[in-house]
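User: two proteins, same treatment. go.

Assistant:
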Amino acid sequence: MVSLALAALVTVALGPVPALLAGFAVAAVAPPLWRTDVAEHRLPNRLTVPALLAGVLGAGISWLATGVPPTVSLLAGLVVGGLLFLLALVGGMGMGDVKLATAIGLASPTLVVAVAAPLFAFLMGGVASLIVMIREGWGTRTRHLAFGPFLLTGYFGALVLSAVQRLV
C-alpha cells in the first residue's frame, strides 16, 4: 500500500517521462529497504540492484526516445553515488547506501529533485546524528544510524517539492 502511494507521488511529481520507471522501482523497494536498514543496518542487493538497473534502463529509454542524454539523471547518479562511495571508502557509509543513492540519482530527472533529494537526506541525517550525540554524549560512539531511510525520505520529500511546483 505504501509503495502504491509512493508510486502515485512519483507520477504526480515527474509526469509522463521515462524516469518514471526508475521512480517506480525506488517506490517499490522503499518500504522493505526502510525496514531492513532500520532492523539490520543493511540494504540488500536483491532490492537495491533492481532499482539501480531500472534507473539505468530509464536513462537509456529516455536517451533513445528523445535523442538527448538525460544529463541531470546521469550526473545526479554519478555525483551522489560517487560521494557516498568516497564516504564508504573511509567507513562512513555502506555499499548498499551507495547503490541506493545512485538509483535515486538516476530516478531524479529534474534539477529540483536531483539537488533537493541528497540535500534533504544529509540534513535529516545530520539532525538525527546530532540528537543521538547529545543524548549519548559527545565522546561516545556506540550507536550507528541507518542512512537508507534518510536517502529515501530525502528523495520522496524532493518529489513532494517537485509535485507542488508542478501543481502551482
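Protein 2:
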Amino acid sequence: MARRAKDWNEGLAKDLRDPKFVKEFIQAALEEGLPIQVVLGKVIRAYGVKEFSKKTKIPGPNIVRAIDPGHNPTQETLNRLLRPFGLKLSVSLIDKREKSAA
C-alpha cells in the first residue's frame, strides 16, 4: 500500500469529524468493497476510541475488538457502532446490471 503524507492523514482525520462526511465516507467505502471493520476502524480511530466509547456506551476494549478484522462482531454490535453516524446494516436487492457484471 502506498504511504500517505502526514498532511493527507491529518486532513482525512479532520474530515472524519464531520457527521455528513462520515456517512458518505462509510457508504462509499462499503460500496467499493472494503470490509466494514476496516472502514469503522478508520473512522473510530480518527474520532478517538475513548471519545467514541463515551458516545456509544461501549467499553473501549470492546470497540477495538469489534473493529479488528480478526474478530466477528454481531450485527447488533455493528449497528451500535454505526448508530452515532445515523447508519445501520441493511439488506437490499441486487440490481440485475450488477449481478450480470459479477
